[in-house]
Each structure stands twice: as structure tokens, then as C-alpha cells.
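Late entry, written up from scratch paper. The run itself happened at the end of the previous shift, but nothing got recorded in the book at the time, so transcribing now.
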Amino acid sequence: MSNDFDFLFGRWRVAHRRLDARLAGCTTWTEFAGTCATWPLLGGRGNIDDNVLELPSGTYRAATLRSYDAASAQWSIWWLDARDPHRLDPPVVGRFHEGRGRFECADTLDGRPIRVRFDWSVDDPAHPRWEQAFSPDGGATWEVNWQMRFTRDPADPRGDG
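Output as recorded:
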């Protein structure tokens, strides 16, 4: 439904956990902080968020654009990274079912084809979770490489902070 991402509107503090190397047998994770601010677009059939990611190697910004297609009952989600401002990642496409969202697409990593998956868990809308996984074998196996835990910014009037 077009209101699936309404839980995300407002300002958040984000705890990130990211695998240091993707699809390389790496088991080392880096944890870092960030923020996210999300608001509706397109009369409620879309939304955008502005992210600040505070990596140990340096802070950068990124944006997520989401749009809902009522005909297919699916969302498309694009990622735009300020470190590569001329590249808009291919959209992951999918939907929510019973508090969980799954979105996938084909992409490439270092020149080889992969599948990309975003999973949202909104079992607790006050503390949503997101994770990204890559598959090098068409979806037979997946490697989770990025996780985010959201906590409402105490200054956000929607929150309990």
C-alpha cells in the first residue's frame, strides 16, 4: 500500500553495521552512526530520505527515493550516494507483507552480475530495521553486508524520545 513507509517519516538516529568487503569471504564488520530524515512526496505515493553516514573514514551523505505503483502494488527504491553523484543505483522492487518488506533487483559488483536484496522489518515501528544482502548465484545463497537499526531522534515530535 502507498502508506507502507509512513512509519519512516521524521528524523532518526541510525546505528549502522557494514561488512568491510562484500562477497569476498570477509567476516569483519565496521559499526558507525548516522542520521536519517524522511518525508512524503508525490501526494503520498512516494517518499525520500536524506542520510548522513558517519564512517570512520569520513562522513558522507546519500538519499533514498521510493515510489509506489498502485497497479502492481509494488515499491521501487533507488539509492543515490553523494560520493558518486552521477550514478543512481538500479531500483530494488518489492512489497510489504505482515510488517516485513522485501525488495530485489539485478546489479553488478566489480563487473560481475549479482542480486541485491533490501529487507525491512517493522515489527516494532518505533525501532525499524533494515538490511542489505547480495547474491552472486542468482539468489540461491545470500550474504548480508549492511544492517541498520533506527531509533527516533529525541527532537522529532513523532517520537517517544
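The beta strands are 10-19, 29-41, 46-55, 58-69, 74-81, 92-97, 100-109, 112-121, 129-135, 143-152.
(Scratch paper discarded after transcription.)
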